[in-house]
Write a structure and sequence with these properties.
3-stranded antiparallel β-sheet, 4-stranded antiparallel β-sheet, structural constituent of ribosome, 2 helices, Nuclear Transport Factor 2, Chain: A, mainly beta, ribosomal protein, ribonucleoprotein, flat, 156 residues
Length: 156
């Protein structure tokens, strides 16, 4: 698993950090050893945000079956660009020969996240119809991860 955005409270002081899951134990150990913060791990209150966990199956309406059916959920991925699309053919023709780069290359990227698109496939053997469902932007997306339990202690 990658990084998570963590907000923790140490002796009434709120701190925010982007922490790798494997390094959390070492991070707490270093905080205990530091001269500035003299804390124990029980005083930490972890609040994970920007993390979306979606189940692998979902009961939702199927247009082909005309009723609610279980659907298999996967994450949509963009297909490979065709070499024969009109824009690509025009671009390659313009780029060929002398003269260097002919069109501007986009470099001013502003967004840090992507919009997640779910691909829902009906599990009915005779149907197998597919549809897309867009969800909001999120930093970390997980498909079929462990559910959060109320009052559960974080294990290292």
């Amino acid at each position: 698993m990658g990084c998570i955005f963590v907000e923790f409270v140490v002796n009434g002081c709120a701190l925010r950090a982007l922490i790798n899951m494997r390094l959390i134990q070492r991070f707490i150990f270093k905080l205990q050893r530091s001269l500035i913060l003299n804390v124990n791990p029980s005083s930490f209150l972890f609040i994970c945000i920007f993390q979306v966990n979606v189940p692998k199956t979902r009961r939702t309406y199927c247009k082909k079956c005309k009723k609610h059916q279980p659907h298999k959920v996967t994450q949509y991925k963009k297909g490979k660009d065709s070499l024969y699309a009109q824009g690509k053919r025009r671009y390659d023709r313009k780029q060929s020969g002398y003269g260097g780069q002919t069109k501007p290359i986009f470099r001013k990227k502003a967004k840090t996240t992507k919009k997640i698109v779910l691909r829902l496939e009906c599990v009915e053997p005779n149907c197998r119809s597919k549809r897309m469902l867009a969800i909001k932007r999120c930093k970390h997306f997980e498909l079929g991860g462990d559910k959060k339990r109320k009052g559960q202690v974080i294990q290292f």
